[in-house]
Every structure is written in structure tokens, then in C-alpha cells.
Amino acid sequence: TTGKPDISREKSAELFEKAKTYFPGGVNSPVRAFKSVYGTPLFIQKGDGCHVWDADGNQFVDFCCSWGPLILGHNNAKVREKVIEVMQHGMSFGAPTALENDLAELILKNNKFIEKIRFVSSGTEAVMSAIRLARGYTKRDKILKFEGCYHGHVDALLVKAGSGLVTFGETSSAGIPKAFADETIVVSLNDRDALKKAFEEFKDQIAAVIIEPIPANNGLLLQEKEFLQFIREICTENKTLLIFDEVISGFRISFEGAAGYYQIKPDIITYGKIIGGGMPVGAYGASKEIMSNISPEGAVYQAGTLSGNPVAMGAGIAQLSELLRLGFYRDLNNKTEEFVASIQRFATARNYKFKVFSVGSIFWFAFTDLEHVRKAEEIDPTSMEKFKLMHRELLNRGIYLGPSGYEVGFISSAHTKVELEKAKRAIFESLDLVFRK
Ligand code: PMP
After folding, report:
1. Which residues carry this modification: N6-(pyridoxal phosphate)lysine (predicted)?
2. From the alpha carbon of 124, which atom of ligand 1 is closest?
3. Which CATH number does the domain housing residue 375 bear?
């Protein structure tokens, strides 16, 4: 028994059957296919505030928020109006517009960690370009990444660690030449010795260390500030650039992202998601000196037909302007903290093997009794069965979480107290069902 009848997915199922004839696996991005949770993926028809509605008319409080970009919730009036205003004058020119200056100014004036920026069209593109910049700048080839950090579907970064402290990358995807993966070194998070060993073994060969300073793609693997500082120091000592991939944490944890939160200055920062207000945008930024290596000023080539697209810039300007309002992050983070603490109290009181990890307005439901989860390998894969049950129960109670237990949830400024209370009750009921099975 599931406690409640399953929601109707008739229309979604019909759409999915059709989609399967058009797209591999029926989707345009893999996790959307609901492979690791119950049932047919829900086809979303509309969103407003903290709610989404699917094709069958089911309503949900949405904690996926398009995987992070929608920090103001769905269909925010200020963002929508700005987009419509811009669109009335054309959608793309492939030539500079004042809107690019406006968004850049908004960012650079309020972020002391970068001096120049380049807009691209996705997080993947931002990371790919940052890696090329680091290699061009240092004239070195190797990249070091951490197991459990996702950086988009960049060839050199779709690799995982094998056994041992330091390993050469082994690809996690077909279609990546071994020679590319060989340039990638993978180490565990929270492991100073592995990092030291990698720098000894590949002395003067590592162009960049890339990390999600708040790793949020393999659960929420919160790192200690001291570890991030250690990475900063070892990079400086070895003339290796430090790249913070802030595609999720940028403008989410604070306006200055995780760099601001930890007060650690990386050499290059990548952004995506929130920066585009829900439109396809990414960006990377660094000091003037490092950025001067980008074409047409420097020798590192990087370009894009739709880069700095005016409609996307408009959405970004409208969204980021809201984030700069006094108290925006304080209110959002307080709201999240209350939500998370109350769920944790409930689970602890009932002795459930369940933790809610959170930072800022990001949270992760983990079926564990560990006090901290800092490395990918500390997650028990069998615990995902519990998430799968919970996901189904939550959908049946009008709560939408991203369809994977390894993904984090997001709270937006549009999540009202009333809706969060409703969500809590649904979460309590679902936990009871999951643990009493
Ligand atoms: N880096 C990080 C940290 C991400 O979370 C993501 C996407 N989830 C990416 C890069 C890739 O961004 P996109 O999906 O926009 O290409």
C-alpha cells in the first residue's frame, strides 16, 4: 500500500509515448526520464510562484525549480515583463547590445571575485570555456577534478575515479577518447593527502583544479572551509588555477555565491542557472589579466552565435536586480533553515535514519545516520530505494522533488509559509510510510 492513491498520469503517459518516438529515451536531458523513481515522467504544463501543474492537471509545490535557476519561483512578474519588453524589439542580433553591459555591470559591481566576464549559453559551455582558458593561460594540459562533482557534459570532466587515492580518469560516458580522459585526474573530496599526492606526481602539469565549492550534484556534499582553503593554497603554490564551478551555488548561496560565503578567491568562476533568470545562459569570469587571454584580446578562442542574447540578458537583469534587494538572502535562507530544522526534528524524534543537509536555500534528503556526508562514496546506493518510495508518496501529496535521490532541492522566494507547512506535513506522512514499510 502507498497510503494514498497514485495521481493520474494518463496525459503525461500519452505524451511520453509520443516523445519516445522523437527523442532518445523520450527526453532532451536524461534525469527527466524518471529512471530512478516510480512511474512516467510528468509533463509540465505551467508554473506560477512555487507551484507547477502537469498535463493531467495535478498541482505540485515545486522543489526542483528547474534544477535551480528559478530562485524567484515560476513566472515571476518582473522577469516576465522585462523579457516581453525586450522581445518587442527583436530576439537576437549577433551584435553587441546595451543589455549585455547592463547585466555585466550588475554582476561585476556586486561581486569582488571577478573583474571581467564572458556570457555563454549554458553551464556546460561556461565550464568548457573555463577549462580551455586555464589550459591556454598556464600552457599545461592536465585538469584535476573531484569524484562526485558534476561540471556539465564536458568531455574531459565526464570521468570518475577508480580505486586508489589518485587515479587517472576513467570515462563515465561512451564517446570520450581515452586520450582526453587521460588528461583528467580524479581525487576524492575531503582528502588532502590525495590532493598532495596528485600535485607531487604531476608536478608542473596541472593547469587547473575544478570543484563545485558546494558540491550539489551527488547529494549535497558540504565541504569544510579548511579543505577549500587547502585547495586554494596548493593551487597557488603550484601555479595551478583554481576554478570554482558555481553553476548551482552562484547567486544562490549569496550574490557572490560560494566564493563570498567562504571568502575564498578562486582564479576563475563559472556561472549558469540563476544568472539567466530561467533563460539559457552561462558565464565565466576572472581577473582582467586572466580574461585578457580570451579571443579577440587573447589567443584562447571562444565564441557563440547566441551568446549575450538580449532576451536572456533581460531575464538575468530582472532576476538579479531582485536578489540585490536588502534582506533577500537573509529571508530566503531563514525560511529554508526553519523548514529543514522542523523536518529534521520530526525524523530524529522518531529515530528515522534520515538527515536533511542544507546550506542557504539548497537542501538534500539523505537516508543516512552519518553526521556529515562529505564524499561521494559515503552515500549508500541502497538508500536510494527509500528515496524512490518517498518520491512517489510526495507526488501523491502534491510535492514535486527532482526525480533522483542524488539531486538536491531548492527553495525560492515564492515558497510561502503556508505552502511550506503543507509540504512539511506531506513529508512527515511520507517518511512515516517509508520507514514503517
Ligand atoms: N556545473 C554544475 C555545478 C552544474 O550543476 C551543472 C548543471 N546541473 C552544470 C555545470 C552544467 O550546466 P548546464 O546543464 O546548464 O549545461
Report:
1. 273
2. 16
3. 3.90.1150.10
